[in-house]
Amino acid sequence: QVQLVESGGGLVQPGGSLRLSCVASGFIFRFNSMSWYRQAPGKGRELVSSITELGDNSKYANSVKGRFTISGDNAKNTLFLQMNSLKPEDTAVYYCARGGYYSQPYDSWGQGTQVTVSS
User: What number is the average pLDDT over the span 6-26?
Assistant: First the structure.
């Protein structure tokens, strides 16, 4: 079955950086677009970024554009999210998802990884 395992979250000061990873299994990674979502306390899940299966195009939420970079390693079935210049409003649980670039992602989620931006 589909498994998505996120890691790399933590506590970081404003202006700091983190790199999230998501190891995928149970489907052919290189044939799928992939996405990162986040959910802050008391809010719904929102799309942060998505990338095509070839990695040649990506999309970003306006709130993270210019600060976050999505990438993937097809050889390792791993999706990444490099997050720079972090702000307190980036605090959330981050999830990766199969699909999401062309339409809604598949409804299969990992446990997420907590990112907390605070001084």
Answer: 98
Residue 110, pLDDT > 90, answer no
The residue-averaged pLDDT of 28-45 equals 95
Contact present, 39 and 48 (Cβ < 8 Å): no
Q: How far apart are CA 30 and CA 109, in angstroms?
A: 18
Asked if residue 87 has pLDDT above 90, the reply is yes
46 in Cβ contact with 38 (< 8 Å)? yes
